[in-house]
Amino acid sequence: MELRHLRYFVAVAEELHFTKAAVRLHIAQPPLSQQIHNLEEELGIKLFERVKRTTRLTDAGICFFKEAKQILLHVEQASETARRVDRGETGRLAVGFVGSVVHTFLPKTFRLFRERFPHVELVLYELNSNEQAKAILDKRFDIGFLYPHFHDDRLQLQTIVRAPFVVAMPNKHILSSLKKIDIKELAQEPFIVLTRSSEPVIRDTFISMCHSAGFSPKIAQEASQIQTVLGIVASGLGICLVPDHIKNIKRPGVLYKPLSGSPPIVELAVAWRDDSHSPLIESFVRVTTEVIKQ
């Protein structure tokens, strides 16, 4: 038995007329009658009673009609679901991200993606860059927003933001009137920093900047969340160096000042497995790129 047999049967059952059903199916009437006869032979039952010029369903035919309709409906639903998955319109997408991007383009990306693909389930995880890369390679995540500081042929990386470091300082800091800050002027300042476990790229770049400027930073406090770091800065207990996109966090009592010269650039990238050809990932990357360009 094939699906076409069910479709032929349902058409005849709905029309109760072989010729009309044949027209509806775009086939000749004799082959249709033969297909129904073959189906009855296979099932070992009569599906139709043919009395003179009328056709009606037998009791067994009525029962089979209800089940056949359900089967065809399920097949159509399954086919449509598969087509939508293939087009990247439905499914589940596990997305990792570093905490700092929550305050940048990420909320708008999620909102726009949800508007365009309402049948896709977004599952979000906040992890540092190293943890995300491992989760993507282990196939626990589909895609992630991270600071790449490694090369792995198993990962596709697309840089979406290149941000120079800036100084976040209390708004009443002695250097707050300057348009730009020379990092060497910060040698004696107490620094509030992210823990290395929360974001090793930011922490390592910060340490490297200070060493290149000829001093070791005085670390006064550490925190695992950028909001906590900025809160401590606002209280006047120190300053911090952060990527430029952190300026989107408008914290009362905190000023952001650019560094003079050519401060280091930190890249933020979207990453996914090189062997992944998911339409969902393609759709998500496309929406992300669109938001970034706005």
CATH third-tier fold name of the largest domain: D-Maltodextrin-Binding Protein, domain 2
Name of the CATH class of the largest domain: Alpha Beta
Number of strands: 11
Distance between the termini: 55 Å
Average pLDDT metric: 90
Strand content: 15-25%
Per the principal axes of the C-alpha atoms, what is the gross shape? rod-shaped
Low-confidence stretches: none
Taken together, the total number of domains comes to: 3
Name the CATH superfamily classification of the largest domain. Answer: Periplasmic binding protein-like II
Structural class: alpha/beta
Instruction: Work out the radius of gyration.
Output: 32 Å
Number of continuous helical runs? 9
| Element order: H for helix, E for strand | HHHEEHEHEHEEEHEHEEEH
Approximately how much helix is present in the residues? Answer: 40-55%
- Biggest pleated-sheet summary: 7 strands, mixed
Overall CATH architecture of the largest domain: 3-Layer(aba) Sandwich
Compose a concise summary of this entry.
The chain has 294 residues and is an alpha/beta fold. Helices cover 41% and strands 25% of the residues.
Task: Kindly list the characteristics that best describe this protein.
294 residues; alpha/beta; Arc Repressor Mutant, subunit A; D-Maltodextrin-Binding Protein, domain 2; 7-stranded mixed beta sheet; two-stranded antiparallel ribbon; 9 helices; 11 strands; 41% helix
